[in-house]
Amino acid sequence: MSEPVYHSIQELLDQLKTGCGRTFAELDVNHRLTGVGRNDKGALGKIVEEGVYHYSVNSRAEADFANLGVELKTTGYNKTRNGLSFKERLPLNTLNYQNVEAQEFEDSDMWHKCQQLLIALYEYLEGKTYGEMTLDSGFFHTFSKEDIEILKQDYEIIRNKIKSGVADTISETDTTYLGACTSGAGHGKLDATASRHYHLNLKPRKFALKAVYFTGVLRRLFAKGEIESVIDYEELKEKSVQDIILDRLKPYIGKTESELKEMFHVGDTSKSRFERYVAGMLGAKGKVNATEEFVKGGFELKTIRVEANGTIEQNMSFPYFDFREIVEQEWEDTEFYQMLANKKYLFAIFENNGKEYIFKRIKLWHIPGQILDEEGYKVFSELKEVLLSGNIVRGFQTHKDGKVVRLNNFPKSASNPYFHVRPHGEDGGDTNPLPVPDKLTGVTEYTKQCFWLKKTYVLDIINKDD
DNA sequence: GCATGATCATGC
DNA sequence: GCATGATCATGC
What we know:
Layout: H1 9-19, E1 22-23, H2 24-27, H3 43-51, E2 71-80, E3 83-85, E4 90-94, H4 97-102, H5 109-114, E5 116-123, E6 134-142, H6 145-163, E7 178-182, H7 192-198, E8 205-209, H8 211-222, H9 233-236, H10 241-249, H11 257-264, H12 273-282, H13 292-297, E9 299-306, E10 316-317, H14 323-328, H15 335-342, E11 344-352, E12 357-365, H16 369-389, E13 393-398, E14 404-408, E15 419-423, E16 431-433, E17 445-447, E18 449-453, H17 455-463
Parallel strand pairs: 2-5, 9-11
Antiparallel strand pairs: 1-6, 2-3, 4-8, 5-6, 7-8, 10-18, 11-12, 13-14, 15-18, 16-17
Helix pairs in contact: 11-12
This protein binds a DNA duplex through helix 12, strand 9, strand 10, strand 14 and strand 15.
């Protein structure tokens, strides 16, 4: 039987639609998911090629739809209350060190193969097999000229490390949208050819689009309104996103709060007024962390106030979590873990000089893996135990005005130097359902809570030179 | 001064 | 209407 040929992007999209709404088990014409231990994510792309496009996988070595220059990628998203998001990077082609050294971005293997992507999507469902998940939609993706400038910068960063003989120091944290992630099973395996050629221990790597980038693409695609962008194309020709952001903020260093308030017309009493000052500096009308560059670049702004005596008064909050979700999850799968692991934190630091706050400095930070994996896990486990036991309320405290507050057993600030759990909602009546009713009070809902970063830890971070 | 529980103002 | 970024307020 001859293979079908698709003549246009529209035909590709139309064909994809014929598969949407069907599970991977239904589309699995060659039984790639059948049998013990055959729950392989890697099979899904092949299943779409065979079951939807009626290609035979083995007959073609190169680009998926070579005549159209389109590469097919099948990938899963997660639904969070903030919208759709990707948990994992989207792997592209294998990184051939010598080719990258020799090739300009425009002529690179990566760009040749991946400049036009057809993305087939399914929702990743915890606890289900891939065969039970459903191909649900897809879209055609090309890169905007702004994206291309950033990809080019990223490619050059990786290429320069190879050129200057330090390819062994390549890290995914070097770059913004395009990463060079390690690939291949097993630890300690090396790319033998490249290692020999460069006299370095070089891991096998792939180019990959970062999860935060693709999350941004997806949110923009499904957004109701426009997503705000704060950087234009001309600037990107000269500088990286990170440098542009830092350069936007630098002129305001030394400005006092009263000056910033006047410049950016921010109300006096807003608890988030410092965030609004930074928005003003960046030229963002909406929330800084919702701008295209922050989402796709994986930057997360946090403002910090340092008091005149050198301390920080407040711990740092994060979005609230869902109690019922937490007890079902592994630590690594929580939104909090994913956020800390994947974001580059941009701390805007305001210091009080005894009279008022002054915008003093900026610090970029990424959490050390060990703290997240070990200390975070402790707090998470304790939280999970409390929720599952139903021993949530520990007692009551009556304030002088007669108001009664509930005391709880969630992990306390006093018990861990990095993380704790505290309320985070509109007020005490802003609640979420509990997995197990509280034993003492019988309540089935509790004030929304989130993980907090302890202020003394935050102070350590911003005071450490690097 | 810290720990802990509670809440505010804004943007979408 | 509600999530979020962040600060307030009380008690010890």
